[in-house]
Inverse folding.
């Protein structure tokens, strides 16, 4: 029997406009079984890890094909022909693909560059140029949209504050701005950081060199070209946090600029103003809430910070048809909506719309 993890599939259709909209649905398929385009039984043991760089969409997937286990890559497309439109059959980077997933039903496998036939399965979702949450501005008042986004932002604000409940979690949050997935970076470095006296210490420069040489998992938001500018500031903030987190919790933008000036005097490159606002929003204001919870405007200051815009938030707001002034908090509200509704089951969870089919 074929099972799907999409709730009440017969009553709802999921309209997609590009293959990226398939990612959250594919990630739900662990443990589900399919019949492939050539009639083989496919079981998804693990859907794999999202690949944010060139090559197949998912790496290190575990797939059972007629009871035989395979480990390799998974590629997602809207239709089978897209494999050939993208010339994957000529690209050796796709030779480790063990499963092809499409949103339109198909009856054929695909061929890799090394002449291996790969099974294709069909996810039960439909393709449409118009998706259900386009132009919600037509159905909701701007004030309603902003209110919902602000509630989501407040939830993320509380999550940001919780990161600083203990030293290691706080340090992990600081190093998150260098590497969004590597949770070992802080724990591996904490003893070395505690031995450093100041940013002019030779050990600071040695650790900086070590950080720069790492293979960071930065994702699409963190470009390697800015890494040498981010690392000195993050290290300096980590040093202050380990010695006296209360001090860093009271920092202002002027204090951060003063820290940048000292880093420049010691020969380090520094990031621009937008990254300072990232520091304020992700580290300093949430940390301030831990030491001064009685301050009434902490959340409002956080919410109204200028922001370094993320492409996924810009695309989502454009899709919704809204044009609100972008702030740190508003963007956090959009991220909350994307991660908690749009990436799972929008027909059931979206606070803006009620889809009826």
């Amino acid at each position: 029997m074929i099972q799907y993890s999409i709730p009440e599939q017969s009553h709802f259709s999921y309209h997609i406009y590009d293959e990226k909209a398939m990612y959250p649905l594919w990630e739900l398929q662990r443990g589900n079984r399919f019949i492939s385009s050539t009639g083989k039984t496919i079981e998804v043991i693990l859907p794999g890890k999202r690949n944010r760089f060139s090559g197949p969409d998912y790496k290190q997937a575990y797939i059972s094909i007629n009871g035989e286990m395979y480990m390799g890559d998974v590629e997602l497309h809207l239709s089978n022909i897209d494999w050939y439109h993208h010339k994957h059959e000529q690209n050796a980077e796709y030779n480790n693909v063990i499963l092809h997933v499409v949103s339109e039903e198909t009856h054929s496998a695909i061929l890799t560059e090394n002449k291996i036939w790969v099974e294709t399965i069909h996810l039960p979702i439909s393709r449409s140029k118009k998706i259900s949450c386009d132009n919600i501005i037509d159905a909701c008042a701007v004030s309603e949209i902003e209110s919902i986004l602000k509630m989501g932002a407040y939830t993320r604000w509380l999550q940001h504050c919780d990161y600083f409940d203990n030293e290691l979690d706080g340090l992990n949050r600081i190093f998150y701005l260098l590497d969004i997935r590597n949770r070992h970076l802080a724990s591996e470095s904490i003893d070395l950081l505690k031995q450093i006296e100041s940013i002019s210490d030779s050990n600071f420069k040695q650790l900086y060199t070590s950080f720069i040489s790492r293979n960071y998992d930065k994702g699409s938001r963190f470009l390697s070209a800015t890494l040498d500018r981010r690392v000195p500031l993050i290290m300096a903030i980590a040093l202050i946090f380990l010695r006296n987190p209360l001090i860093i919790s009271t920092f202002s933008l002027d204090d951060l600029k003063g820290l940048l000036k000292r880093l420049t005097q010691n020969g380090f490159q520094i990031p621009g103003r937008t990254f300072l606002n990232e520091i304020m929003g992700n580290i300093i204001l949430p940390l301030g809430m831990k030491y001064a919870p009685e301050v009434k405007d902490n959340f409002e200051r956080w919410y109204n910070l200028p922001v370094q815009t993320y492409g996924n938030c810009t695309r989502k707001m454009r899709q919704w048809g809204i044009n609100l002034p972008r702030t740190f908090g508003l963007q956090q509200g959009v991220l909350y909506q994307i991660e908690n509704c749009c990436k799972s089951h929008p027909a059931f969870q979206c606070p803006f719309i009620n889809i009826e089919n």
